[in-house]
Structures are given as structure tokens and as C-alpha cells.
Design goal:
This protein is of the alpha/beta class. It folds into 2 domains: 269 residues, Metallo-beta-lactamase, Chain A (4-Layer Sandwich); 180 residues, Rossmann fold, CATH 3.40.50. It is 30% helix and 22% strand. It is globular and about 65 Å long. The model has no long low-confidence stretch (mean pLDDT 92).
Length: 460
């Protein structure tokens, strides 16, 4: 049997930048190609040369479409990678929206930074352009769940349902008589739209995410929490601003708002989805009922609109976005990005943060160093486009909408192994949750470890 070598080129003691280099008998494949977000010291890694030659890769495999798992791919292509990029068909459809949008936003940010002069770089440049992203899309190869394929000579892989977002997968890789299971991002057991993660298969080594490896989402139902926040904000005649990831979180929020409205648990108020990407992604969710759970699949097949409230408004154009600045409460605005690192949400924050009648509702993970994390931790002012803005709006958090399994969810999934893998590597989590999960597994008798950046391991 030949050994498999793994290099942890990202998502090692941090929750972004997922990249895992796998080598076997002279072949090299990369599992995920994500950008770093959050802390500046991490974001700077996006500009460093990768710790491998992109031209030497035989293939890339993607667990799901989120930018912290796929957003480096266009950069990889500009650096010489010419091979296929394998992922679930729904993931491929989502990347067709996410990558060009990411390139466009980076170009716009660089252009704005150069115009206003707030960047230290002269001139400020994008990591890659929209044109780079569109070229990279040509290398996508959509696959189905549960169908093994050869991704390189001597290396095969199978994609299994992981929940989390549409098309999200765990990947079981086999090479040289050994097997490695990459959990990707694990979804929750109870999801309004998506199925639960499938039970894990036997493997020699496991890479498991640990985003919430040290905490629980809480006992209060997310629909109850959302109903309370909507009603309290409406009573103040304020605007509820929800920064939400365009992929997954926006659709789940819309689904829940529709359910609450139908049950008369919240008033019928205007809802604006201000993200061209989220609008397009919602269309992709409708086109892939095979990746939904049974209830959501039934709604779609019977012609119902699971992602529309009575007064929903989908905003694409810049003019439509600007018009929301004058909207009066009660109203709801859902906009990207979920961690408030860029996009249209920044303009809404400038407009809505100073008014105490308004509410900022955090519905997803906020990575260290992001504006979302600073607001969550009680910052009194936030820097946007080089200027500080006061935070007077109420700040609420609903953890139950997280697309990630919490500590109990991860451990529950791991408990379904018939026997522990020979080696388990705890990844995709900041230092504390990664160490906490590794310790919990070690106490159960597992051989578990949270690897450092660029650490290598051999599976033999």
C-alpha cells in the first residue's frame, strides 16, 4: 500500500481559507481552494504564493460553494492550474454566480480604494478579476452524490450529502489502498430546507470541521427568536437589517419568514432582498429539488414558493439598492455579506447603524477580525470605507440559523462511526474550538489532533 501525504495549506486553526493538498504516488490533488477572510494577517496569505505549484495539481475537489472553500480557485488558475475542478452539480451552478461576483466586488473595492485613497497599496489591486473568474468556470465538472469517479490516475472520490448548503458534500478519497474522509462543513440535524448529513463511512483518516467545536446553538428555536426580533423591531417602527450569506442563509431566512407570516406570528411587512447574487442563488435552490429535504422538495414540486413572503422584493440594480436608503420601518432588509466584510450591506450599515429604532440581526458565524465579530462583541463604532460610524442600533443574534452543526451535532455525527479512524485531524475552526473538539475526541480514546498551518501528515 502507498502512503497518502496531506498538507494542511489552509483552515488549520482558523475557520477560513480551506485548502488540503493530497499526494499519492506522484499525483497531487487539492481538496477545497478557499480564500482567507477576517484577520489581516490571514487575508495577506491570499496574496502569498501558495505552498505548492498550482501547475502540478492533477485536479481540485470542492466540498461546497462558499467562498472560504472555493474563492481562491480563480487565483489558482491565473497561477497555472489547468486541471478539472470536481464538485456536486449544485455547487457548480452556485460557483457560476459566486466567482464572477467575487471578482467583480474585488475590482470595485480596488477602484473605490484608489478613488478615495484609503488603501496603503498604490494602486490597490483585486486578487483576481471577474474575467479571471469566468475563465476558471470552464474547468468545473459537476458530479452526483454517491457516484465514485476517478479524479486522477490512482485516486478516486465519492461525494456524500453533508447538509450545510445546497450541494454541500463530504468527500471520501481513496488512493494506494488507503482512504481519507473530508467532512467539509457539516449541516445541522434539523434544517428547514436541506437533508441531514449522512452517516460517515469507515476511513483510515478523517478531517472534520470544528467551527462550533466548543459551543452549542442553544435551546431556543430559531423561528421563535426571529419572530421576537421582527415583532420588537416592528413595534419600534424600525428597520431590521439582516446581514446574511447569499448562499444558504438568505434562503433559510426567507423560508422561515414565510412560515411565520403564514402562521400570523409576525405582521406582513415589506421584505427586501438586496443582493443580486442572493436572487440568483434562490433561483438555483428552486432548480435543485433533488438536494432538498422531503418537505421542501414537496413545496417546490407542488408549485409553491417557499422563499417568498407576501411583500418580498428582490433587488438587483444599483438604483433599486439605493432606493432602500429611504425606506421607513417597519421593514426588513436582507443583504450580503454575512460577516459584513464587503458588498451592499456596508451601505445599509452606514445608513441604519446610527438609529436606535433599528436592529442588526446576526444569523451566522462571525469570524475573528470581521466587522460582524466586532459588532457582536459590542463595538461602539465601526470603520467602513475609511470612516467610523456609531453603533446605536440594537444588536441581536440568532445562533440557531447557523448552517454548521454545533459541538453536540459534530460529536453526534462522529459517534456514528463503527470504529474511530486511525487518525483524525480537526480543521476549519479557530484555535479554541479546534483544540476543544480535539480534546473531547482524545478523551473518548480517538487519536485526534488540530494541525498547524502547513503541517504535513502521512496516512500509511
Amino acid at each position: 500500500m502507498a502512503a497518502i501525504k496531506i498538507t494542511f495549506a489552509g483552515a488549520a486553526r482558523t475557520v477560513t481559507g480551506s485548502k488540503f493538498l493530497v499526494e499519492s504516488e506522484g499525483r497531487k490533488v487539492l481538496v477545497d481552494a478557499g480564500v482567507y477572510q477576517g484577520l489581516k494577517e490571514l487575508r495577506l496569505r491570499n496574496w502569498d504564493a501558495p505552498p505548492f505549484d498550482p501547475a502540478s495539481l492533477d485536479a481540485v475537489m470542492l466540498t461546497h460553494a462558499h467562498i472560504d472553500h472555493t474563492g481562491y480557485l480563480p487565483r489558482l488558475v491565473t497561477q497555472g492550474f489547468t486541471g478539472p475542478v470536481y464538485c456536486h452539480k449544485a455547487t457548480a451552478d452556485l460557483c457560476e454566480i459566486l466567482w464572477p461576483d467575487s471578482g467583480h466586488l474585488q475590482e470595485e473595492h480596488a477602484r473605490y480604494a484608489n478613488k478615495k485613497g484609503f488603501s496603503r497599496h498604490k494602486p490597490a489591486l483585486p486578487l483576481y478579476t471577474e474575467a479571471d473568474a469566468r475563465l476558471a468556470l470552464r474547468q468545473l465538472r459537476g458530479v452526483s452524490f454517491n457516484e465514485p469517479i476517478d479524479v486522477a490516475p490512482g485516486i478516486s472520490a465519492t461525494w456524500r450529502t453533508a447538509g450545510h448548503i445546497l450541494g454541500a458534500s463530504m468527500i471520501r478519497l481513496e488512493a494506494g489502498g488507503r482512504s481519507v474522509l473530508f467532512s467539509g462543513d457539516l449541516g445541522t440535524v434539523v434544517d428547514e430546507i436541506l437533508p441531514s448529513p449522512v452517516p460517515p463511512e469507515p476511513c483510515d483518516a478523517l478531517l472534520v470541521e470544528s467551527t462550533y467545536g466548543d459551543r452549542l446553538h442553544g435551546d431556543e428555536r430559531p423561528d421563535d427568536q426571529l419572530a421576537r426580533v421582527v415583532n420588537e423591531t416592528a413595534e419600534r417602527r424600525g428597520v431590521l437589517l439582516i446581514p446574511a450569506f447569499a448562499v444558504g442563509r438568505t434562503q433559510e431566512i426567507l423560508y422561515t419568514l414565510r412560515e411565520l407570516e403564514a402562521a400570523e406570528r409576525i405582521p406582513e411587512i415589506p421584505v427586501a432582498v438586496n443582493s443580486p447574487m442572493a436572487v440568483d442563488v434562490t433561483g438555483i435552490y428552486r432548480r435543485h429539488p433533488e438536494a432538498h429535504n422531503l418537505e421542501s422538495r414537496h413545496l417546490l414540486k407542488t408549485g409553491q414558493q417557499p422563499f417568498s413572503t407576501k411583500q418580498v422584493r428582490f433587488c438587483r440594480s444599483v438604483q433599486q439598492s439605493k432606493s432602500l436608503a429611504s425606506i421607513k420601518g417597519p421593514a426588513i432588509i436582507i443583504s450580503a455579506s454575512g460577516m459584513m466584510t464587503g458588498g451592499r450591506i456596508l451601505h445599509h450599515l452606514i445608513n441604519r447603524l446610527p438609529d436606535e429604532r433599528n436592529t442588526i440581526l446576526l444569523v451566522g458565524y462571525q469570524a475573528m477580525g470581521t466587522r460582524g465579530r466586532k459588532i457582536l462583541e459590542g463595538a461602539e463604532k465601526i470603520k467602513i470605507f475609511g470612516r467610523h460610524h456609531p453603533v446605536r442600533a440594537r444588536v441581536e443574534r440568532v445562533s440557531g440559523f447557523s448552517a454548521h452543526a454545533d459541538r453536540n451535532g459534530i460529536l453526534g455525527w462522529l459517534d456514528r462511526f463503527e470504529q474511530p479512524p486511525t487518525q483524525t485531524f480537526v480543521v476549519h475552526g479557530e484555535e479554541q474550538p479546534a483544540e476543544a473538539l480535539a480534546t473531547a475526541l482524545t478523551e473518548r480514546g480517538w487519536k485526534a489532533h488540530a494541525p498547524e498551518y502547513l503541517e504535513t501528515a502521512e496516512i500509511d
